[in-house]
Amino acid sequence: MKVYISPHRKRMLFALVILMGIVGLGMVVLTAYAAEVKYHTNTTLRENEILRGEIENLKVQVNGANNIQALEVKAQNELGMVYPGPEELIFIAGEEEPPADFAMLIRTEAYQ
Fold first, then answer.
1. pTM for the full predicted model
2. pLDDT, tens digit only, all 112 positions of the chain
3. Which helix (H) or strand (E) holds 25?
4. Distance CA 29, CA 73 (A)
């Protein structure tokens, strides 16, 4: 027994199949786009973690370079700075007013 399908029904079924194909294709495209966005997000997160690690390393280096012992060694070895001896110190009493040319006095004492 053969079932007769009207041409109008055939067109509707054909349009429905085409519509389902378009919807399926759209879903594939959207899934691919979502996967690409997720890939870029994960890549960015990995790069951020790498940068965070580098920042932590730099913080450790900065803290190591800023401690007083490291600064003292650098000042003595690279800049030739030394602690003043007792004869090189200038004391100022709280009650006394410094002379008008105090900066010149300090400069003279420093460069002798």
1. 0.47
2. 788 888 899 999 999 999 999 999 999 999 999 999 999 999 999 999 999 999 999 998 888 777 888 888 888 888 888 888 877 777 776 666 666 777 788 888 877 6
3. helix 7-66
4. 63
